Prior knowledge:
- The strands form 2 sheets. The protein has a 3-stranded parallel beta sheet with strand order 2-1-3, with helices on both faces. Strands 4-5-6 form a 3-stranded parallel beta sheet, with helices on both faces.
- The chain is globular, with a radius of gyration of 17 Å.
- It has 10 helices and 6 strands, in the order E-H-E-H-H-E-H-H-E-H-H-H-H-E-E-H.
- The N and C termini lie close together (8 Å).
- Strand 1, helix 1 (12-30) and strand 2 (38-42) form a beta-alpha-beta unit.
- It has 2 domains: 4-102 and 217-228, Rossmann fold (3-Layer(aba) Sandwich), CATH 3.40.50; 105-214, 3-Layer(aba) Sandwich (Rossmann fold).
- By secondary structure, the chain is mainly alpha-helical.
Amino acid sequence: MKTIGILGGMSAASTQIYYAKLCQLVRDELGSLHSPELLIRSLDFAPIEALQMNDNWAEAGRVLNVHAKTLEQCGAGLILLATNTMHKVAEEMMDGVSIPLLHIADTTAEAIRSTGLVRPGLMATAFTMEQSFYTDRLRSAGLEPIIPEADDRHETHRVIYEELCRGLVTRESKSTYVKIADRLVSRGADCLILGCTEIGMLLNADNVTVPVFDTTQIHCEAAVRWSLG
């Protein structure tokens, strides 16, 4: 079993989900008392969030680069960045790092393409929905992403930062998210990307009318295949 390095804490809720999923996947594959070989570097999200809001992505990339190098030095053979949004600085984060990054958008695009679907709705942070670093990778894979309208993007983003990142799940926000997903389907989405690692706390195959692609689940499955392969 090869060692997976997780760069997390963005948010802590997301990293907890990653750890639980990786443990479950390895246990399902190997049985008994098996668990994954992991190195976890969990950051304080508040300073990172401040850099996001101040549009200081260069400094965010520098910070993540320091910790990616630490994971490599400690023996990780692969890096999982346990957040969709911070893949905006993936290139800067991996500068001078020789082990690979398993890119969350690429693994998600591959999973969607394998089903023959092509028009994923994307629910995520405003950064991920509105900037090109993520949607361009989906388009490069032959997909045609559909993002919510402006008001729905605002509410999706608000719920992530004010609720989900703090581990808060409410009936009202779940209902709101379901309605946003339904509106994406009405505009032609043939599937839905849960493009923030916490969105699975509200949406899943039981309350969305099209196939759901949970980026966290897909990311973890790909990492386990690498680790055990």
